[in-house]
């Protein structure tokens, strides 16, 4: 018997007026996998994230999270998702712990339960010793780690990250990428939107998105074949961004 995927996107389309941002997108994310949603600027990655988090809705297609239909059963589906958006959403003038507590409260958690969940989430990202620091005092990499910890407070099955390394230096980028790969190795299902091929490991699943369409889903090693993933990606997408086309 096959297991229900962590995330299944079936024939999803979305248009902004006359512009078709997503066109019949289908893919599945197996549980405990790191899956890169790889696409150049304008491919539709953020649009897809907006649909997965119900910031946008579409009548065309279907999205299921751990078997729960996002349109029919949004509470159950959304409860199983943790999200790190492209734009940071932290209160810089309060401590890491207060930020985390606020978020726990949004999920209906308080008191000891909240503390235990927050501690565990910070621990997973090696951020526990920073709990008392003001967010403003943290560097970009630590702020991102904190946002990832925050997205894990309610123990989601699927973690969505939209270009989470934007604006980080090379060392912080590498560290965040490694941390999230570790989370997948521990059993979390991860969808990581990026246009940066070097964030992807050979065994990762990759969904190549270009101009709103899925060009391919396979492991990075399969897509790279005898060559490099970057060459295969450039060949598939023509090497130019939608914005520049
Ligand atoms: N609110 C909007 N109104 C009209 N068109 C939009 C809107 N948002 C996005 N688009 C267009 O839809 C397409 C997909 O955009 P989207 O932001 O989802 O891509 P992306 O892969 O996330 O790119 P980026 O990496 O630049 O964020 C692009 O052509 C973009 O110009």
TrEMBL record:
Keywords: ATP-binding, Nodulation, Nucleotide-binding, Transport
Occurrences of domain ABC transporter (ranges): 7-236
Organism listed in the record: Rhodovulum strictum
GO MF entry, a single one: ATP hydrolysis activity
Record keyword Kinase present: no
Protein name from the UniProt record: ATP-binding cassette domain-containing protein
PANTHER family: ABC TRANSPORTER ATP-BINDING PROTEIN, ABC TRANSPORTER ATP-BINDING PROTEIN NATA
Protein family membership: Belongs to the ABC transporter superfamily.
Superkingdom of origin organism: Bacteria
Pfam family name, one: ABC_tran
Organism lineage string: Bacteria, Pseudomonadati, Pseudomonadota, Alphaproteobacteria, Rhodobacterales
